[in-house]
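ASSEMBLY PREDICTION REQUEST
Request ID: AP-0331
Submitted by: J.K., bench scientist
Number of chains: two
Total residues: 225
Priority: normal
Notes: Please return the full assembly, not individual chains.
Input sequences:
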Amino acid sequence: GQNIDQPTEMTATEGAIVQINCTYQTSGFNGLFWYQQHAGEAPTFLSYNVLDGLEEKGRFSSFLSRSKGYSYLLLKELQMKDSASYLCAVRASGSARQLTFGSGTQLTVLP
Amino acid sequence: DTGVSQDPRHKITKRGQNVTFRCDPISEHNRLYWYRQTLGQGPEFLTYFQNEAQLEKSRLLSDRFSAERPKGSFSTLEIQRTEQGDSAMYLCASSTDREVETQYFGPGTRLLVL
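STATUS: Completed
Returned structure:
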């Protein structure tokens, strides 16, 4: 089975940096994804890690340590529009490759 | 590319009625996934198609649920004899079948069973 843990809520200030952590336990691993989801909308893809290390994409970076079952999403220069739920998801090994999601971290960016 | 589309966006039905949702994936995406999401939770996998073949179903998918993808393009998800517990957002996602692929989600169909 798969178990994914991430904090339920976080609050940060506009212009600041925030790190959202995700730990996972899986019976098979074939990549870790981060999605952003605004209320009432579909998840939108942010980043993908399959090898250990840091992937940077503009203001967003994602880190993976497979040996520790740990990832984080780093958001820099926070903007009000970054207020959303951030979903950590692990892709299963095997043919289906469905994603198993955590419950999401609701980030609130304050002025 | 217009992205993944879903229809309807919202559905209100009475308990016991049947409902059907449609998903149109990104063209040339041969993998299609259905997920269900309830408030405050992440999406949960329901089922997966590779072209027209349904290759995996979650145990969450009771026998009241059926999904099809007859021509390997659009897909439908039907729920028979709906129950209040079926109220959720039903999300469709599609991807290519390359080794490294990203699933792109549609806007979802929000179902409310009264």
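REVIEWER COMMENTS: Chain A has a mean pLDDT of 92.
SIGN-OFF: pending second reviewer
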